[in-house]
Fold this protein.
Amino acid sequence: MTLKQKTASGLLWSFVDNFANLSIQFVVGIILARILLPHDFGLVGILTFFIAISQSLVDGGFPQALIRKERCTQTDYSTVFFFNLAAGLFASLTLYLSAPTISQLFEEPTLEPLLRVFSIVPIIRSLTAIQETQLIKKVNFKLQARISIIASTTSGIGAVAMAYNNFGVWSLVALQLNKQLVNSLLLWSWNRWLPSFTFSRDSFKELFDFGSKLLASSIISSAYQNIQFIVIGKFFSISELGYYTRAIQFRNLPAQNITTVIQRVTYPILSSIQSDIPQLRVTYQKLIRCTVFITFTLVIGMASLAESLITTLIGEKWLPAVIYLQMLCFIGMFYPLHALNLNILKTRGRSDLFLKLEIIKKLLATVPLGIGIAFGIKAMIGGMMINTLISYYLNSQWSGRLINYPIYQQIRDIVPSFTLACSMGIVVHIAGLASPTNGFWTLLAQMSLGASSIIAYCELTRFSDYIEIKNLVLERLKPSTIFKNEKP
């Protein structure tokens, strides 16, 4: 299989995995939002911060080091497995013991039992990190897609059943726990790898030099990405945090889906050609152009129909989330760009630079949090919008130097897609304003108008990035390709 075919296959199955997974979560979230209260989602939003930090100990640096290493041994995998297990146990114990203090901090007694039940998640994650790493290294996203779809479906059905039977916020907790548990069981059943009872100091030392910096970066990044939940929950209201978390979940359907696909697939692909700088640059440039075309179109499109989307799907009680969603979409459309630029740093072995940039960006990011405490949630998101532009500049400036792809060339490559997406967004938003209602038919009309206008323009002008994506998709959808037996 050529590099192009391998990339296309990985992107296709990773997209199927993430899109199906997030779509199921999205549908389940809509049903739960109609049953539960914003306060319930706010409680889980607070828990998200602590769980994310603990999981970053497991998912952070060492699995990334294994992916980058060209030839991994059983000893390497076993060493990282036992390190992850120890980290997971430490994180779970810390969460369990700190639950009363966290509950008192937010003056929410319910948080203590919720967090203690949630504390088992890091242990489950530690048991599956190597299984996922092996599949990513093989670019086997087809199996991961099967597993995650089954896990999301079964956990979603269980959570909805609990919500209908008045379990309240516990249905949201069960949703996350069941998904992690089913995912873990299926990975162990289908990947069929077992650790050896060995821990190599030499292997650990080799992986530590690269992985430890990514681990520190992961913890810093995870803390920042979720700290706003703590700020809103502490200085505002739990219900306001509920509106914010729902806006995040809507935004993440396109933005986080694409980011995860890009991050998972391009890292092993780019790592395989890390020594060939010219080919690395050409491949990276194509990925940038195709990624921003999809991202800008979907995320700006979501922002333009935010009001009719929220009103139709989860009801008018969630209308305060509209403005949050529109502002967060601006931040979200840069996520895949961040992921690509940071993957170049990892591919070139510059985990030291990766960590330094992460520290600088997150120090700058404390300013919006202070603004939010003083002036409100909208002001905080506004500061985050400015910060994401600064972060993009820093990421692209340094990654560009490593592969001779300066930032001005990258901006020149993404401007056409940005202009096209903004034009479509304006048209869709005006159509929404002209409609007398914000119901289902308005939403359908806006979506149809946005999709048809983009496709028509690209077909008429033969927009290069659109044509590249179209050809890749058509190639993968050929019957001979679909039904071909792929090696795991």
Remarks:
- Residues 1-247 form one domain.
- Residues 479-488 have pLDDT under 50 and may be disordered.
- The CA atoms of residues 78 and 198 lie 6 Å apart.
